[in-house]
């Protein structure tokens, strides 16, 4: 009888520990807009319960969050020394490649890091060759990291798809690239809202803008119309105009033709 | 086995006994006796409310190191930085006293929410730049475990200031100072203005300055809530009550010129509760006056200004409430998504609000037109006569607009030079000011909070030097004045 009781308690405590460990993996997400529901919800409340009742748990969670943030800061430090040694194009390219993005110099091929994060050092020779295109999708670039990106003065194409730390403040920093930037993609960035899109009006040479799948934008259809009015020479790829009216799930992003002004 | 035995025994002992059945003819009312015994045990056991001492949970604590009068953005900012910069965790006990927990008349909640670096004084520019970086990294500064991240709804659309012929030279020199301090501002000629913003009518505009980064507007209520949450989690006490009295002690001292000065030190603050005569004397070491539009009353309670006029004792705190109106209107053909916060040559300003062609704005009245600050009633005629004509002149699309709503709020207006008062009072040595920002309090609050906290904890301003904002300038007559149209 007693063995059964103890056995139950042992199993209960194991389940408790397992939940905690799953929960700590959840700490590492830095407050993204999309929160997974379902069976993670129970672990969340257990973690929240413990945080509310124990100072140790609260302090541990605070410490882990600070550590995550400082990791992102380290990744986005300024490479001023590299800029002095090798010129702005190489420094900017190195920054992107280190983050896991891809770089294309003018008249050269795309340079991408492989799955281990290694990339070929041939670009150190391209000191005078400007960078034409940058694919920084899924990279952890934030506001400070844009210091390095803005070194690439003749950038023509910038892809910032699904970047978790690119927000409205970052978009307000893109105006120095106005002369050369022709393509910009912000698809899937969780922190970009229509307020950040409003400051893209400086980029008058933009010809293609992708604003599909932005969860923080409150009214995608209306935002698309307003952005198209703001940038008349640009093809804005996003959602369908009738998006706000549909009750069903989002459609695939389609290329919108010339806007019909009412 | 034991489990089966226990309830059986209990049942036998107490629960199954009927009154007056088994034992003799006593009508013992055993059930009632048991419930009485249970009640007595419950009232003696700890953790339950015991009526031996009266309930004082609504009163503030009896001792506090720092008492901050005013729980708006500036008061909370000072509390935050005091807790952040203290050298030992839990080293300083801070109490924030706020008269109105709904913040119905507080300037913070009623503010338009703009932030802009286009000032002429370097200190103001630095304060605004720091506030921009504070807002940008708000989720690092104000992170509370278990709370969702803050979304300030910041619009980085920038600020556009227009200048007529006579103000153009001043604007040029201001922009030079701003660029030196690190603000990203550029000058635009009327042609460039027309190119960029085709909906502007550039008649009467000689020059414009446009801030491109770190400028725009945000939701001040969200900032207030976030600060309040963080500050509570850092261990600051809050109390809803009104400061009615300062008990201070004086000391006569001689200056180097053998003049007698009376230095006062506040050592008790009487906090009166709402709708009652009950008050709590709070013993304190430092008092911070962050009461916004009502700072002059608090200063008068401390005896500031009681003396012959023209002397330091007789210099009052020249901060008074001034009413300002904000109107929200709808204009379907109005300027588009790229509209910055536009401040016209006449003093009228407007900005976009949301996605639906709504705009809000207003205008500062001249000295003669100052409305009566005793209430927050809105004067709609002011919009018709004094605001709309200027707006319609500057933006022709605004000729057809429809006012949706309006509200009024107070500026804590510094009648001396329209800039803030920061730092200690020379005679009441432990009262620090953080008030009088005349409409810029929102954008300077984080920087000012840090400056006051540095002054208290380290004795001097460490990061941004706000010595030109000290109280002494009112006595010495040195105005720290802005020469912009803002």
From TrEMBL, chain A:
Signal peptide positions on this chain: none
One GO term describing the cellular component: mitochondrion
One GO biological process term: mitochondrial respiratory chain complex I assembly
Source organism, top-level taxon: Eukaryota
Oligomeric and partner information: Interacts with incompletely assembled mitochondrial NADH:ubiquinone oxidoreductase complex (complex I).
Function summary: Required for the assembly of the mitochondrial NADH:ubiquinone oxidoreductase complex (complex I). Involved in the assembly of the distal region of complex I.
Family, similarity comment: Belongs to the ATP synthase subunit s family.
Protein name in the entry: Distal membrane-arm assembly complex protein 2
Gene responsible for this protein: DMAC2
UniProtKB/TrEMBL annotation, chain B:
Transferase in keyword set: no
Cell compartment(s), UniProt: Mitochondrion inner membrane
Listed Pfam families: DAO
GO biological process, one term: mitochondrial respiratory chain complex I assembly
InterPro entries: FAD-dep_OxRdtase, FAD/NAD-bd_sf
Highest rank taxon of the organism: Eukaryota
Gene Ontology MF terms: oxidoreductase activity
Bilayer disposition of the protein: Single-pass membrane protein
Keywords: Electron transport, FAD, Flavoprotein, Membrane, Mitochondrion, Mitochondrion inner membrane, Oxidoreductase, Respiratory chain, Transmembrane, Transmembrane helix, Transport
Domain FAD dependent oxidoreductase: 65-455
Cofactor(s) this protein requires: FAD
Oligomeric and partner information: Associates with components of the mitochondrial respiratory chain complex I.
Described function: Required for the assembly of the mitochondrial membrane respiratory chain NADH dehydrogenase (Complex I). Involved in mid-late stages of complex I assembly.
Protein name per UniProt: FAD-dependent oxidoreductase domain-containing protein 1
Provenance organism: Rhinopithecus roxellana (Golden snub-nosed monkey)
